[in-house]
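Usage

Read records sequentially. Each one opens with the input sequence:
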Amino acid sequence: MVATFEPKTDYKVVGTRPIRHDGYDKVTGRAVYGADMKLPGLIWAVCVRSPHAHAKIKSIDTSAAEASTGVFAVITGSDMPKAQSKLVDLGEGNINFKWASNKLMADDKVLYKGHPVAAVAAADRYAAEEAARKVVVEYEVLPSVTNVVDALAEDAPILLDDLVGDDLGKDVNNTNMAAHERHEFGDVEGAMKTAAHTIEREYNMQMVHQGYIEPHNATATWDEENRVKVWTSTQGAFTARTQIAGILQIPISSVKVTPLEIGGGFGGKIPVYFEPLAALLSKKSGRPVKMVMERTAVFETTGPTPGARMIIKLGADANGKLVAATADIWFEAGANPGAFIDPAAQCVYAPYEIPNTRIDGWDVLVNKPKVAPYRAPGSPQVAFAMETAVDELCEQAGWDSMQFRIDNASKEGTRRGDGVLFSKIGMQEVLEAATASDHWNSPVGEAPAGKKRGRGIANGYWFNIGLKSSANLSLNSDGTVQLTEGSTDIGGSRTSMAMHVAEVLGIGAHDVRPTVGDTESIGYTDVTGGSRTTYATGYACWIAANNLVEELKKRVAILWDIDENDVDFNDGVFSSKSEQKKTISFKDLAGKLEDLGGPANSTGSVDLESAGDGFGMHIADVEIDLKTGKTDIVRYTTIHDVGTAIHPSYVEGQMQGGAVQGIGWALNEEYFMTDEGSMANSSFLDYRMPTSLDLPKIETVIVEVPNPLHPYGVRGVGETPICPPIPAIANAIKDAVGVRLYKTPMNAGSIVDALK
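and closes with the structure output:
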């Protein structure tokens, strides 16, 4: 579905800041999360996990566990249905049912530390944990690889014996390289040779985790009708249903998923982990089964974002115009293919207009958990490489880095690195807002003795996605409207959906009561991810609201005994085109429906191929202790084109939240791996994330360049804000202390080593 709308600015609801509809439940503790689920006869289950990163399973003895007090069921890899090797698009990432099944429960080999080898269901969690300790597994330990260089070495241990790699269309056996893809345009080599200034640098990044507070969970029943019912914390009830059905090899109509409140996801709660296991244990035990993941397992076994090795080469002419660029990108996929090299290719050059480009991306298996989306998957990595290379190129040539970005900025008609031509975008407007910002026009300030201050800037980009969404409306007799939609709410989307409806109907935001439905209460809706929710589900709500207006025009026609084409509607009031004195408000009409044909309902759905591109720039001021290397963020500003801010407070929250996560990624966060392939810092105590004590107030500048594909001009804003922080901080560190860092995290130790 593609449409173009005239920009409108005289909104009554859009652009306001109503209290979120779920706010009271959240602050009073009434909201129901996965760990709160209780069903009659409920039992608990836990996993038995591998202590090794790579090993053959020689034998599993579950007899002692099965004989333990309170145990109802035990499963191993032999109990998993033989899932098809079929690739399915989940909206933000793909899934292969065969590999996904093996990720949840090992078959003949474990591929990462914590890989489940068995699961035990018992009367309570403590009985299950005690019984799990009695499962005896004999392993043959194998060498492991935890980075792309080792994984691609000639003598590297092979993770998946049946993997056939795709090297630019050529099949490759006995490999850890799942895929090698290329995008190339123009005469890259010729343009690079004639460039007045060139730079080539290598960048390396460690895996990091999304860091959501709520751990993964699932409660499942496999009932007498051979139907599976699941209650879970998920970013997409329908995508969860697809995965569960594919892994269990049952029809999707046999699976019902009820999404509960979600305590953070950021992409990490798109894949399923416990849902199929709980269902199998329920089938075997005849009881509903509940599973809640321990924090160590969240880090060690659920999907982080890919670690990366990247080489960027840039060429510019004497006038400061980019003429050529190459990017070689190796991403860690974890134990199964799927490392987001496609999104990385789409994002790497996006803020710039470059006539000659080449991008090569490699998807590489390593003995770590299978990666999952994390806020603009692939884009923060390539932003770090590209934006620091841009700054260093400007340093060498003596150019102002802000002016260079302005001179080379993407605009409507610019070709992205993978070939897509931009429609109406806001990169130039973002740069204008950045140069006009108070932060940019204020001095960095003097640092105390023994410390240095510096400022860095960086661009960021995420393409945003559309996909499928559904919404239903029903009108109550008191003039309120019940909205049921299918997008699980992570960041306040229920309120933004209600605002879409209220704007059309001419009523208040709180006159619309939004509910997120299960997979049998609403039409198919794709994942809450990709920065699609307010854009696509909001569009579906807008359609449903307009359809409700059309339905109500029929009722007004009955009331006044006129033709429905003679009925007009504006700002919540129906009127007659021919007799202007005839008017009735939306709420008054609602009270008369019983005599005008009964209940009034409507639906709306979309399948959007395109979305509005999101661009941003961040400005970071840092202060560094020269003795300890400790880095403090002293001022930080995010500037983003959001199209139209439906609820500005939520938009600002997304901008601030993405910035904070990017700051943590830049300065502290990493999967610190031992030589044996284990994560050494798998707790919030050791996995260092920023808190409020580490940060200044994140300043926000909202730029609105309405997206012509959306009725209110919405672009996604959930993901672009995590892309600029890493390079902005890298550039600020260089400005402060005069040394440049080429790997993350750029922690105190790295800075001290560089200063030496």
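Summary fields computed downstream for this record:
- The CA atoms of residues 350 and 416 lie 5 Å apart.
- The longest strand covers residues 322-334.
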